[in-house]
Design brief:
179 residues; single chain; Aminopeptidase; 28% helix; 34% strand; binds coenzyme A; alpha+beta
Length: 179
């Protein structure tokens, strides 16, 4: 897809905090953004604040995607450590971007950056995975461009929005980072 002239140098990451709840509402209430996400688009500001607080606590990395000083999305890494010891060396990547910023290469840039950060900051991490709806072609493309390997389809893996959905499993492993 053709990308607008857009300077990716204006994109940066910083920790997402409760004071970002107003910016967060812009994409959290947008059905186009929520379509392939587990949350519903009709989120209240209190629900957004809870989501931010819970993720800030439970994620190893929970970053605001910023354009200048405006928050336009977030990206997270959630470790499985503590929940499932057999998967203690794995973590899951998630990301969301406000609709008006799609198609400019922003997600690809920050996913690449966060892969480097995650393997640098989490010394025990061996596998970073992302699970994407089979219909979410843009997100699959982002992961491919960022160096993830497509591992296969998990049939009826996730019950979301009233339906069990087929998901694609992607991963990048420690041996592949910085190689
Ligand atoms: C998925 C998402 C983060 C992508 O962000 P983005 O900044 O637009 O992604 P990029 O611009 O870096 O790359 C998108 C790629 O997908 C491609 N793409 C987008 N829509 C597409 C479609 N319908 N069919 C085929 N390719 C498509 C683009 O052309 C681009 O690939 P290219 O550079 O080879 O042309 C954004 O759409 C989003 O926030 N979606 C809602 C939340 C979500 O789905 N999160 C991920 C959950 S796993």
């Amino acid at each position: 897809m053709e990308q607008d002239a857009f300077d990716l140098a204006h994109i940066s990451l910083r920790p997402l905090s409760l004071s970002d709840a107003d910016d967060f509402m812009v994409w959290a209430t947008d059905e186009r953004v929520a379509k392939f996400c587990t949350w519903e688009s009709s989120t209240s500001k209190d629900a957004a604040a809870d989501y931010i607080q819970n993720n800030a606590k439970s994620c190893s990395l929970f970053q605001a995607i910023c354009l200048g000083d405006r928050v336009i999305g977030f990206i997270s890494v959630r470790s499985f450590e503590g929940n499932d010891e057999g998967r203690a060396k794995s973590a899951e990547l998630g990301y969301v971007l406000g609709f008006k910023y799609w198609g400019k290469g922003i997600a690809t840039k920050v996913v690449k950056q966060v892969v480097e950060m995650a393997f640098a900051d989490l010394p025990d991490l061996e596998r970073l995975e992302a699970v994407v709806d089979v219909e979410n072609v843009a997100s699959q493309r982002v992961l491919e461009k960022a160096g993830f390997r497509r591992e296969g389809i998990l049939r009826k893996f996730l019950f979301m929005k009233g339906k069990s959905r087929d998901m694609v499993m992607f991963s990048v492993i420690s041996d592949e980072v910085g190689a």
